[in-house]
Amino acid sequence: MDMTTAHAFANQWIIDDSEDGVFSVRAKAYCDPDIYVAEQKDIFDRCWLYAAHESEIAKPGDFLTRRVGARELLMVRGKDGELRAFLNICRHKGGTVCRERSGNASTFRCLYHSWTYTTQGKLAGVALKESYASGFDKDRFSLYPVRLESYRGLIFICYDETADGLKQFLSGAVEVLDMILDQYEGIDMTILPGAYEYTMSANWKMLMENSMDAYHAISVHTRFFNDYMPNVMGVKMSRNDLFGRTSEHVGVRDLGNGHSVGEIRRFAKNMDATKRSMWEEKYGKERTDRLINYNRNLLLFPNTIIAEQFPMIRTCFPLSADVTESTSWTLVPEQEDPAIRAGRLQGFTSFQGPGGFGTPDDIEVLEQCQRNCRELPADAYLDSSRGMKQEVCLPDDELQNRVMLREWRRQLDLPMGQG
Ligand code: FES
Ligand SMILES: [Fe+2]
Q1: Using a 6 Å cutoff on CB, does residue 115 contact ligand 1?
Q2: Phi, psi (rounded to 5 degrees) for 266
Q3: In this predicted model, what pLDDT tens digit does every residue of 322-377 receive, in sequence order?
Q4: How far is the CA of 205 from the centre of ligand 2 (A)?
Q5: What is the rounded CA–CA span in Å between residue 254 and residue 312?
Q6: Does residue 1 fall inside a structural domain?
Q7: Which of 6, 262, 335, 341 has its CA 20 to 30 A from that of 164?
Q8: In sequence order, which residues have a C-beta less than 8 Å from that of residue 29 and are 6 or more positions away?
Q9: Are 321 and 389 in the same domain?
Q10: Which of 95, 128, 158 represents a domain boundary (last residue)?
C-alpha cells in the first residue's frame, strides 16, 4: 500500500482486502483506553464468557467466587441442585457477600451487617430485624442473578439479557468441543485444583493472538522445539510434521462468531489409541483418525482458549488497555493412569508454567510489543495477512487473528476499510 492509500485509511481500524491479501489493524487497537472502555461495554458485557467447570461446583452448596469480565461473581449449586450465578454484591450497601474463593455453604453472610442469603440467592435474614418496618420486603432484595448456561460441563455466563443462547453463540465451536470431549465420553472430567494465574502488561488481544499463533513458536520457543522436545520428550517432529501442508487434516477454520480452531498433528501420547475400534464404530474412520492423530486449539471469542493437548482452558480479561489477567486450568479425567496424569501435568507445566518454556517467553515478547505499540504514530498499522490467499490456512498463518479481529470490529461497530 502506498502512502496515499495509507492516508485514506487513517480512520479505519481494520483494512481487510481479500482480493489483494491485505489485512491490517491499527496499532492503537491494542493500547487506546477508549477502545478498552468500548470493549467492556460492547464485548465483555454482551458475549458468553467461560466462567468455570461444573466439577468445581459439583455438590449442592458448592460455590466459587471469581471475577468474570468486569464483575465479581458468586457461582453456586443451590440446595435444589441448580447452578446459578449472581453478582457477589450485597443488596444492603454493596458489601461483598462471599469473600472465600470456593467451598461449600448452606448460606452466605455479608461481612458488613450480616445480611444472609440462601444458596438460591434469596435474602434469608437480616440482623436485628425488629428495627425494620412492616414495608420491608425481603423478597425485593435477592442477589442480582446473571445468566448462566453450560455445555458439556463448561459453564458460561452472559451479562446481556437479550443475547442469543449459549449454543447459538458457540456456533461451529460446538462440533469442536464435541470432538475434544467425546474422547472422554462416559468419564467424569474434573478441573485439577490450582491454576496458573498471572497478569501481564500487554493487551488481551495480543495474548489471544499469541495463544493460537504457531508462527512465533519456532523463533520464540527455540529451546522447547530444538532441545526439550527431542531430548526430554523424545519427540522428533519438524514444523512440517506438525503442521506442514503435507498433513491431511491440519489447518485453521473459521467457526463463526469470531471463534476458530487450529488442528496440528499430535506429538504427546496422552491419547488412548486402544479406543480406535470403538470410536470407528461410533464416529467413522475419518473422525477417529482426526481424534487420534490431531490436537485442536480452539479460540472461543472473545477471550477463551481450549488447548486439547493437556487439555487446558485459559481465559484472559483486560484490566486496562495495557494490562491483562490470565488464568489457565487443566481439565482431566477424574480416574486415569497415574503415568498418563504425570505426563499430562509435565507437558502443561513445562510449557505453560511460570518456569516453563512457553509462557515466560511469550510474556516477554508481548510486553515488548505493547510498549512499542504505544510509541508508534497514531495512524500506524500492524499486519495479520499471513496465509490470506492460501486455500487452507495453516496454524502458522493468521486466519485465526483475522476471524477474531473481524468479530471484534463488528461488535464495536468500528469503521473498516475494504481496500
Ligand atoms: S452491606 Fe451487606 S449487610 Fe450491609
Ligand atoms: Fe508462545
Answers
A1: yes
A2: -75, 130
A3: 999 999 999 999 988 898 899 888 888 988 888 888 999 999 999 999 999 999 99
A4: 14
A5: 21
A6: no
A7: 262
A8: 13, 35, 205, 405, 408
A9: yes
A10: 158
Rounded to whole angstroms, how far apart are CA atoms 217 and 104? 42
Q: Are residues 273 and 410 both part of a single domain? A: yes
CA distance 303 to 201: 16
Centre of ligand 2 from the C-alpha of residue 404, in Å = 18
Residue 272: is its pLDDT beyond 80? no
The ligand 1 atom at the shortest distance from the C-alpha of residue 93 is: 1
- Decide: 310 in ligand 1 pocket, CB within 6 A: no
**What single-letter DSSP state applies at residue 260?**
E
Q: Domain limits at 97?
A: 49-158
Report yes or no: 271 and 308 within 8 Å, Cβ to Cβ: no
Ligand that lies nearest to the alpha carbon of residue 360, given by its number in the listed order: 2
Same domain for 330 and 219? yes
Count of domains observed in the chain = 2
114: cell is 450480616
**Cα torsion 357, 51, 262, 232: sign:** positive
**What does the pLDDT average to over 291-301?**
93
Ligand 1 neighbour 92 (Cβ under 6 A): yes
142 and 184 in a common domain: no
Q: Which of 74, 87, 89, 90 to mutate to test the pocket of ligand 1 (most atoms within 8 A of CB)?
A: 90
